[in-house]
Every structure is written in structure tokens, then in C-alpha cells.
Amino acid sequence: MRKSRRRNDQVYLAFRYEKLIRKKIKEYYNDPPDGRSSSGHLIDNPTMAEAMHRAIGMSTVKINEKESLDYPERWMKVVDRTYHWCDKYHLDVARQYYAGVPWMRTCMNLNISNTTRRNLLAEVEQRALLYAVQEQLISL
Q1: Using one digit for the tens of pLDDT, what is the confidence trace for 118-134?
Q2: Which of 42, 107, 110, 134 is the most exposed place for a label (fewest CB within 10 A)?
Q3: pTM of full prediction above 0.90
């Protein structure tokens, strides 16, 4: 049971902190590399340092003191693909849930029951998990 919950935690983090993660990815690529390889060796050639910086990519993004997300660029692909799959109701429910809108307000805004909201959200999370498996972020 714990393994399944951890998968949902990763999906939640990717969707909930989507803007923050995208911002940190952008900062990573806009900031110049420090001239060191992943093993810590100094790289004298700035072009090579830049190429290594971009080729390796971002391995982890720290969201807060307690939480971090591995492979943030792949998780953003999962988010994009999931939102592309969503229809209007799935998209509205997911965006409001991950924005922290209370469930009653979401139900009133969309004129749906809480059961419908939970079912739509479960479908979005299931689709996101399937895309995460395709990106090799989680395994079944």
C-alpha cells in the first residue's frame, strides 16, 4: 500500500507545484554552468561545460525543506500529456484540486457532485500514472 501512495505523492507534487518546477527548470538552463563535471572535475572549456550542463539535465528539484522531485523535466512531460488528454471537466477538476480550491467550491463552480469530482480526479491521476510509467519514472 505504501508504494502505491508514494506514486500518488509524486503525481501530486508534479501537478501541485507545476509552476515552481517549471520556473526552476528554466533557471537551471538560463544560469551558466559552474565549470565542473558531475564527478566534480574542473572543465576548462566553457563550450564543453555548457554542453555537459544541458546534456545531463536537471536530476532533482527541491520543492521545500521536506519534498523533492526526481527527473522534473520528465514529470513536466507527464503533466503536459495528462492535461492534453483531459476534456473540459477533467481539466477543470484537476486544475482546481491542484490549486488547492476546496472541494465544495469546485463542486459548486462546476455543478457536479463530490463523487463525480473524485471520479474525474481519479481518472486524471490514473492517466498521469500511466504516462509516468511510459516516461520510466515509476514501475508497476
Answers
A1: 999 999 999 999 999 99
A2: 42
A3: no
